[in-house]
Design a protein that fits this description.
EC 5.1.3.1; globular; 8-stranded parallel beta sheet; alpha/beta; 223 residues; binds 5-O-phosphono-D-xylulose; TIM Barrel; 8 strands; D-ribulose-phosphate 3-epimerase activity; 18% strand; Ribul_P_3_epim-like
Length: 223
Amino acid sequence: MGIQISPSILSADFAHLADEAAAVPTADWLHVDVMDGHFVPNLTLGLPIVESLLKATSTPLDCHLMIEDPDRWAPAYAEAGAGSVTVHAKAASAPVRTLREIRRQGARAGLALNPAEPVEPYADLVGEMDMLLLMTVEPGFGGQRFLDLVLPKIRRAREILDSREASVWLQVDGGVSDETIERVAEAGADVFVAGSAVYGAQDPASAVESLREQARRASNPTT
Ligand SMILES: O=C(CO)[C@@H](O)[C@H](O)COP(=O)(O)O
């Protein structure tokens, strides 16, 4: 699939979400941060807004659930039509069942790990997921500084996925920008969430293309 860019609407203008989606026509995904004020100390949006967004854009939605009890709620996002639904390993009490249910409802299933959570305990779950999301900030807010300490884990995750020949995308989320994307791509990530670097730019569409180009060059330095 190659490099993919998923602009996070957390940094967009929530009063004009349809326009904000239209502002990034070449994005591969729109990253939708669902936060419940419990799993993370911030409250954003839920299923009704996702349903409205699905009607307003043809860009597939990459829903990142930062909520308690994702086992209960995740399948509904998949059923509504999200292209990808990601749950946090720490929040899910039955991650295998939930990932299977997301797939059964027709979406790609993602598992997310916070910066301090190791990847090794989840190595045997790679067959159950379509995407592994490694947070490169503590979840909850946009505009935070990228945590370099996650880079070795990104490399480790890439090794695990490659050694198992798993066609699982490796997504990174938090602090991805022109300054950081090259080293994240070199470490082996292939799906990049970027909020402030896209929606804080004068021209969000160009920002998407600039990030994509830098990641492409860094992941394939001979081209
Ligand atoms: O999930 C989150 C934050 O919890 C992210 O999706 C942020 O929205 C990314 O924003 P930037 O760090 O790129 O500004």
